[in-house]
Each structure stands twice: as C-alpha cells, then as structure tokens.
Amino acid sequence: MSNYAIKSEEKFMGQNAWFSLFMGFTLLIISVYPILNQTSTPLLLLGTIAFLGSFFMFVIRGGFTWKMKYHLTYKDEYLNTIDTIAYKHVVLGLLFSLGGVYLFSDDLSLSVSHSMMATFYLAVMSLIYGASILWQSKG
Fold it and tell me: Which residues, in sequence order, are CB contacts of 113 under 8 Å at separation 6+?
C-alpha cells in the first residue's frame, strides 16, 4: 500500500471521527431539548449549525465524493485496528448507558419518550466512536 493511500485513509478516518463527534453533540442536544425546563431556541439553532457545518466541512474537504465508495474496513492494518477498538468502545459505552437508563427507569418513565431515548443512544454511540478514534490516533 502506498504512502499516499495510507495518508488518504488517515485523513478520512480523522474526518469521520470529527463528523461523528459533531453528529453526537447534535443528537444529544436534540434528545435532551424536550426535557429542559427553560428551552431556548439558540440551543437548538447551535446544534443545527454545528451539524450542518460539520457535514459541509466533511463533504467539501473530501469526505464523500461521487467516485469514492464507502468501505467498511480500512486497507491499512493499523487503521483497521483503531476502527475495531473504537467499535468495541461503542459497544461498552452503549451497554453502560443502557444499564444506567435501566437503573433510573422509574424516574425517567413519565418524562422521556422512546424516540428521545433512541436519539440519546445514537448520540452516545456517535460521541464514543468519534472520541475513541481521535484519542487512539493522537496517542
């Protein structure tokens, strides 16, 4: 594998991590927004701008192009290992968040809907995936 291809995959992995973080923050804002006592439009607007900004940054900086195919694995073995470890972190984080929700389910049953919890779980998974990739690639 050429050095250029490895650098290209590293760049794609970094962009994927940042996109996951921004998407996670946006989903977290969306999932928590209905239960806030003093809901504010700037909070929802900030989440929307963060998501759209990260999406356009991802597309403009070369994330997905018309010719590029999305592959589930990376060709470089080191990047593939980072990706696999990040998915393991996602599963562990999801299990802990499911356990936490189960422990506090009596308090949450009246104020939280199923769609809010599904959005919360997606936010947790996105945040953990992006943070895990960034943490591993820097360290």
Answer: 34
Predicted TM-score of the model (pTM): 0.78
Helix (H) / strand (E) containing 75: none
In a 13 Å sphere around the CA of 98, the CA atoms on its Cβ side amount to: 9
Q: Rg of the chain's alpha carbons, rounded to an integer?
A: 17
pLDDT digits (tens, 9 = 90+) for 8-53: 888 888 888 888 888 888 888 888 777 776 666 676 777 777 777 7
- Which amino acid is it at 73? T
Reduce the DSSP state of residue 106 to 3 states and report it: helix
Output the six-digit token pair for 53. Answer: 């900004």
